[in-house]
Amino acid sequence: MNYAILISGRGSNMCALLDAGLPGRAAVVISDRPGVAGLDLARERGVATAVIDRKSFAGREAFEAALALELDRHDVALVMLAGFMRILGDGFVARYAGRMLNIHPSLLPAFPGLDTHARALAAGVRIHGCTVHFVTPTLDAGPIVIQAAVPVLEGDDPDALAGRVLAREHVIYPLAARWFLEGRLELGPDGRVRCAGGIAGAGGPDALIAPWEA
Ligand code: GRF
To answer: Can you tell me the distance from the alpha carbon of 10 to that of 7, in angstroms, rounded to the nearest whole number?
Structure first.
């Protein structure tokens, strides 16, 4: 199964995916911004890269059409958003329904959108974390595949908390990708996530929460 990773920046989740020995083939890494660090990291790993620069398209539809053309050219079964900083339109999301995943740095449905770590600190939560979910038209609201929790510690600032969460992102995203590429993970017609054989190693046969130490 071919998969693609969409990035906009440094690409640490992309690296976690590419370095995980996933059963599929990394067909292409696409960035919506030229010159980002993640592109070099993908090339170093021998993965094909493409830049579909949002700034060179008049509108979102033309940009997304070019993105879809590139993805379909590589015949990808799975699209993974990894720090991809564009909101995707309904048509694009529908085209990849049930085969597009995203990683979000909060325990959704808490803190969708940006600045999640600062907002978690401001809210005074004791537990924070990250979520892998299927992408649906509403931002950061798609069916949840797996989550990892981390404690919020005394004296945390957004950077310290982000680092603790990011380490867990690098654990759960490759897990979710593996399940999908093994054909175990699917988004049912009822909008529920199913993982054949349960989510082993994630705290119990059917647990969707993985608060373990990596
Ligand atoms: C991660 O925190 C991810 O959850 C969020 O954007 C950040 C991207 O980081 N969507 P990286 O590019 O994967 O290092």
So the answer is: 8
Q: Is the CB–ligand 1 distance for residue 83 below 6 Å?
A: yes
On the question of pLDDT at 62 being above 80, the answer is yes
Overall pTM surpassing 0.90 (yes/no): yes
Residue nearest atom 9 of ligand 1, based on CA coordinates: 83
Catalytic residues, which ones? 104
Nearest ligand 1 atom to alpha carbon 162: 2
Under CATH, which architecture does the 1-96 domain have? 3-Layer(aba) Sandwich (3.40)
Buried residues in 97-121 as b, exposed as e (16+ CB within 10 A): eebbbbbbbbbbeebeeeebbebbb
Distance (Å, whole) CA 86 – CA 73: 21
- Indicate the domain borders of the chain: 1-96, 104-214
* 9: three-class secondary structure by DSSP: coil
CATH topology of domain 104-214: Rossmann fold (3.40.50)
Q: Residue 197's pLDDT band (boundaries 50, 70, 90)?
A: confident
List the end-to-end C-alpha distance of the chain, in Å, as a whole number. 27
Give the pLDDT confidence score for residue 204 in this predicted structure: 44
pLDDT score, position 199: 66
Token pair, residue 99, equals 């085969």
Pocket test for ligand 1, best of 5, 6, 12 (most atoms within 8 A of CB): 12
Q: Is the pLDDT of residue 164 over 90?
A: yes
